[in-house]
Specification:
The protein is of the alpha/beta class. The chain contains two helices and eight strands, in the order H-E-E-E-E-H-E-E-E-E. The strands form two sheets. Strands 2-1-8-7 form a four-stranded mixed beta sheet.
């Protein structure tokens, strides 16, 4: 999934479900059978890479800032390409 596509989807949801944006605070990814928001974000060439990081929590605002600076980049969790997202209780889950 490209950064600009995720930004567009988030904007569309912002008019509906994400209207309660303050309650959608974190970015989650699958970590085995669970979800984790202990992530760091970095950019390389044409990639935005989310990596698990114990002492750091990734917020939706931080993700959106990076997406805006690298709109043509593909989004990865570790080395796996992200194909979409869903809304979860405290944020969004990428997968």
């Amino acid at each position: 999934m490209k950064a600009k596509d995720l930004l567009t989807a988030i904007q569309i949801d912002a008019a509906g479900e994400l209207k309660k944006l303050s309650s959608y605070t974190y970015v989650f990814v699958k970590d085995g059978d669970k979800q984790t928001n202990h992530l760091r974000i970095k950019t390389e060439e044409s990639k935005i890479i989310l990596q698990k990081q114990q002492n750091q929590v990734l917020t939706l605002n931080e993700l959106i800032k990076v997406l805006n600076t690298a709109k043509e980049s593909e989004i990865y969790v570790e080395d796996e390409l992200v194909f979409g997202y869903k809304l979860v209780k405290q944020g969004i889950s990428l997968g």
